[in-house]
Amino acid sequence: MKLKKRLAIDGRSKVRTFWQIVFPLLGPCTASMVVLQGLGIWNDFLMPSLVLQSSKRTLIVEVFKFVGELASQWDMVFAGTTMSIVPVLIAFIALQKYFVKGIAAGATKG
Question: What's the predicted TM-score (pTM) here?
Answer without folding.
Answer: 0.55
